Amino acid sequence: MNRSWIQLLYKLGIVFLLLLILYIGMLLKPFWFPVLRLIVISLTPFFIAGFITYLFHPIVDRLYSAGINRVIAILIIYTLFFGGIGYGLYRGIPIFIEQIKDFTEHIPTFARQYQNWLSALYAETSHWPDGIQEQIDKGIERIEQKTNTFFTKVSNYLLNFADDLIMLAIIPFISFYLLKDIDKVKQTAWYLTPKNWRTRLFRFASDVNDSLGAYIRGQLFVCLLIGVAATVIFWLLKIKYSIVLGAIIGITNVIPYFGPLIGAIPALLIAATMSTKYVYLVAFIVLVLQFVEGNILSPFIVGKSLNMHPLFIIAALIIGGEIGGVIGLIVAVPIAAIIKIALLHGLTHFSRK
């Protein structure tokens, strides 16, 4: 038999074997999935602590280089960060839960009000082709159902937040020892990596850190500033659910281009239940905040560390949104940056060969 045919049959056999293993794995899912879920839950504090370590490691290194003892530097960062978060949770969580519950209870009232507006819209658009009004009505109903489900889940999660306090309480301790012994962690990772991969893998990790490190830290800080500013302004103007709306605006602000629009929609819908004046006021506030973020905060704090074309970012957002919804939109850009760096390293490696 021709050698090329043997190679083809060999490759097809490997593909068939992989598909068979995948099929058997899906059949055995009831047995291995609970174990995998337990492992993921157990490792979650370590992942969160690792992310916190990654964020604060450069700051601790700067303080250490300035002559401050490493442990003292970590304690300073801990006092500012976890102390601020603890105080914010202590003061904000009860109000946040109350606003979520109040919003969930008033969803039927909001739905009736929006339905009245929709009826008025029907009267104005009665000359439109048949079927359009029916599709609009179904779309509004789906949005109401999803909104109700989302806020009910958030409310239930916050009410059961105490169950996760023990797991969350160990995160600062894990992060402390990671920050304190970061050199030992790096040395251990170096020795655990196969010798043939060490140089390439650590060069890849260095490039990922150079590209994503400043972006992630800066973007999170900008989102915090925008979220706090929106919350304070909404509270001063006595707009309902100011903490919830500010949190949504802050979280969605991490999404390039589309984030401000997504974050503004809930605020505008709530403002519409108050008065037309508040709709214009909220729209103006969101526009001002995004102007400040886009022209002052982001260029100064985040910069252009990603070095990615806007079309590439938009494509990543579309794919991420289709795959993972809002979470996909949030992580799309960092994952796209990692894929870009991996492709560049792969091309360099194969071109050398």
UniProtKB/TrEMBL annotation:
The keyword Signal does not apply. It is found in: Membrane. Keywords: Membrane, Transmembrane, Transmembrane helix. InterPro entries: AI-2E-like (IPR002549). Its main location: membrane. Pfam families: AI-2E_transport. It is a multi-pass membrane protein. The chain crosses the membrane at residues 12-32, 38-56, 68-90, 157-179, 220-237, 243-271, 278-301, 313-343. It comes from the Bacteria. Belongs to the autoinducer-2 exporter (AI-2E) (TC 2.A.86) family. This is PurR-regulated permease PerM. It comes from Bacillus chungangensis.
